[in-house]
Design goal:
By secondary structure, the protein is mainly α. The chain contains eight helices and no strands. It has one domain: Alpha Horseshoe (Serine Threonine Protein Phosphatase 5, Tetratricopeptide repeat). The chain is elongated. The N and C termini lie far apart (93 Å).
Amino acid sequence: MLKKINYRIIFLLLLILIPVGVFIYKKTPTENEIQNPAQQKINALLKKIKEYPTAENYLDLSLAYYRINEHKKSIEAADNAMALKPNYAHAYNNKCVSLIKMGKHDEAIKACEKAIEIEPSYKLAKNNLNWAKEMKRKAQ
């Protein structure tokens, strides 16, 4: 009789605790879930580029890297965009701002000048050219 009671109690406890445990159990997040939204966007863009390696996708990747201060990678992505679309003013502009952030002002000026040469009315590139020149003056 004692064995039956112990088994019944154990069985009843399991019936109660197992469902509670399911609600309490916290799933261990995957590496992708742990990453910040910017890194998730970069990963999505890298995946997209594998399928569709367009200049526009590389430009988006360049901007995403710029936003997390990965300037070398931003420049590499901009260069990839320019390799696919040599007269891509936006890619030259992205390269310009990353070069400014890296303190490479002469290269930044050349990149912005090229963007403006391609698209003379490109206001953002003109602003960034002025920024590059100002940063160069301050660095001297």
